[in-house]
C-alpha cells in the first residue's frame, strides 16, 4: 500500500527527515475495508485513528428511533476516528462504516504515544488535526442551529467537494439533517434556480 498520500498530509504541518518518515510508516497498519463493513461500532472502544487512502468512510450515530445522523465523512486524504472514545478509551457512540471499498492506514493509540516520544513534532501534527476537528464540529453545531437546510448543503459542498456526486444522496441528507425525500425536493428546487448547482440531476 502506498504511503505517499499520508506523508504528504503530514508534511503540510511538520517537516520530517527520511529516517523519521520511515519510523512513522513502520507504525502504520494497512487495512482494507469492504463496502458496508465497519471499522468501529457503537459501544466499542476506539483503539486507533484511520487515514483513508482511497474510498470513503462515514461516521454516524443512531437515535432512539433508529434514524441515522452522519457526523462526518472520511474521503481519501482524511483522518477519521471516534475522538471521544480514542482520547478517553471509553466505549463510544460512533459507528464508522465504509461507503465503498476502502484502502486505509491505521495508527494505534499506543503507537501514537510512541511517536510522540520518538518524534516530538508529531504532537504538533496531531494537535492541529484535533483542533481542526473541534472547530469543524463546533461549526456544524452552529450551522444546525442557525442555518437553513439549503445553506447547510452548500457548506457540505465546500467541505467535501469530492463527495457531492460521489456518495448516495441519502448520506448527504443524513449529514445535513433532513430526510431523503426533503433533500430530493430541495435538490429539484436548487436545479430549477441554478442550472450550475453542484449536484447531478
From TrEMBL:
> What is the name listed in the Swiss-Prot or TrEMBL entry for this protein?
Transcriptional regulator, Crp/Fnr family
Pfam families linked:
cNMP_binding
Q: Which residues form a coiled coil?
A: none
Give start and end of each Cyclic nucleotide-binding domain.
Answer: 31-116
Output the InterPro entries linked to this UniProt entry.
Answer: cNMP-bd_dom, cNMP-bd_dom_sf, RmlC-like_jellyroll
Look up the domain of life of the source: Bacteria
Residue stretches spanning the membrane: none
Amino acid at each position: 500500500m502506498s504511503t505517499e498520500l499520508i506523508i504528504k498530509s503530514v508534511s503540510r504541518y511538520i517537516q520530517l527527515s527520511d529516517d523519521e518518515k520511515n519510523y512513522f510508516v513502520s507504525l502504520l497498519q494497512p487495512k482494507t475495508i469492504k463496502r458496508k463493513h465497519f471499522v468501529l461500532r457503537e459501544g466499542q472502544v476506539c483503539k486507533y485513528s484511520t487515514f483513508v487512502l482511497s474510498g470513503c468512510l462515514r461516521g454516524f450515530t443512531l437515535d432512539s428511533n433508529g434514524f441515522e445522523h452522519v457526523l462526518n465523512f472520511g474521503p481519501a486524504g482524511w483522518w477519521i476516528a471516534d475522538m471521544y472514545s480514542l482520547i478517553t478509551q471509553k466505549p463510544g457512540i460512533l459507528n464508522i462504516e465504509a461507503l465503498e471499498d476502502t484502502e486505509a492506514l491505521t495508527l494505534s493509540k499506543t503507537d501514537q504515544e510512541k511517536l510522540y516520544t520518538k518524534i516530538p513534532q508529531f504532537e504538533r501534527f496531531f494537535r492541529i488535526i484535533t483542533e481542526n476537528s473541534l472547530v469543524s464540529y463546533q461549526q456544524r453545531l452552529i450551522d444546525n442551529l442557525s442555518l437553513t437546510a439549503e445553506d447547510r448543503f452548500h457548506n457540505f459542498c465546500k467541505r467535501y467537494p469530492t463527495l457531492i456526486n460521489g456518495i448516495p444522496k441519502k448520506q448527504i441528507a443524513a449529514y445535513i439533517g433532513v430526510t431523503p425525500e426533503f433533500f430530493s425536493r430541495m435538490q429539484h428546487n436548487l436545479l430549477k434556480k441554478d442550472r450550475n448547482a453542484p449536484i447531478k440531476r
